[in-house]
Amino acid sequence: MSTRVAVVAIIVEEPSHVEELNRILSENSKYIIGRMGIPYKQRGINIISVAVDAPQDVISTMTGRIGKLPGVSSKTAYSQIVTETDD
Fold first, then answer.
1. Is the pTM of this model over 0.85?
2. b/e per residue, 27-36, with b = 16+ CB within 10 A?
């Protein structure tokens, strides 16, 4: 299996969808290296960055699901390094 390291930047403008966002991230927790959330109270948004090490299709599926949430946007930056694992 090939994996890549990526960072997913997420902006949450609609807090009612945080529960679904957390469910998506929880379902992919085995691939998450770390997560940082910053509440930006002055703008009424939350900024989240998630570092992952996962197969390309897992990253794409996860970010696609996140991007479909109303009031939630995301962008992903990928490492160029592909790692082969025994999994």
1. yes
2. ebeebbeeee
